[in-house]
Amino acid sequence: MDAIEFYTAEIDTLVKKIAEERVRVLKDPDAIMHVAFVSFSIRWGAVVCAQTQQSKNPTIWLTEWAPEPRDVYWSNLAIPFVALTIQRLFMSVLLFFLVFFFMIPIAAVQSLANLEGIEKVAPFLKPIIEVKIIKSFLQGFLPGLALKIFLVLLPAILMIMSKIEGGGSRG
Question: Which of 66, 86, 104, 109 is the most exposed place for a label (fewest CB within 10 A)?
Fold first, then answer.
């Protein structure tokens, strides 16, 4: 078989497969994402594209610098602009309440760290608390431990909130 005929036939079959795949993707609503990564051969073109408005409608064709591929939250890229704005607003309100009310559990644990607070909540522990070693342990160690536990949980809570907020990358 002649090489030209062989490769012409290969190109024809690939063109048919591409057309079939294009039709399949256009029919599947989950296959289309409203995000694109564009590479430029010249840095000047990338700077101009990132700093100019691409459309009359400010909610479409938004451009920004792409994060490093390992930092991208790929599941968040498919979130539409309006839903992303609503999620960011909701997370901002939730963050306000987290900061505002974070002092309540800390104050409650700190009051329990006080020996009188423990005796009020659990009066059956009074004989154990009166032991000098346990008393000094509770007064010196328990308040710091309670505060450290809350401070260890706080970054995990904030990371979960930032993922739910819909950001495109980790950094």
Answer: 104
